[in-house]
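Journal club side-thread
Mid-discussion, someone asked how the predicted structure for our own chain would compare to the paper's figures. Pasting it here so we can look after the session.
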Amino acid sequence: MSKIGNPEYPIHELILQRWSPYAFSDRPVSNEDLRSLFEAARWAASSYNEQPWHFLVIRKENTDVFDRALNCLVEGNRGWAKNVPVLVFTAISETFARNGKPNAAAEHDLGLAMGNLSLEATARGLSIHQMIGVLPAQIQGTFEIPESVKPLTAFAVGYAAIPELLPDDMRDQETAPRTRKPISDFVFEQSWGERGDLPD
């Protein structure tokens, strides 16, 4: 299943193809593909080229570790995430390695890395579903993450499956058309709240 976006202005096809399913097949993800996803993340822009992001990969085939990983998600995410072949936790280094000062751009830069990773996944026929619904302290303790590193999010990696695999309450969301705010809601020109010439 795929859900193609309907843009108001021309954009790259990969951006329109990218979406976040809840239904995943049990088809495994190859090491080759995973390496390329993280290579795409590696080439994201970051403040001072710090690359403050970290990724912890958990495969479903390692059942004990995978079960511990599921317990680091909020309950609402465990029900569907138990079917994904790969779970990944994200984290950031909160200080610059170059001088030990706080890195206020670390979360922003992780977002850029995830943008690259998501588009690389789409180009390979894979799907990514990102989650803020995690238990950071539990991730930190379960996987012995250093205190200098802050767990932030998780994401599923795999191949989208048919919505019929989902519970009834999630199926409608899975099949609903993709929508976005118009750019006039968030792009201003010259002063805050002024639409200018950019949005029609």
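Post-session note: The chain is about 30% helix and 15% strand.
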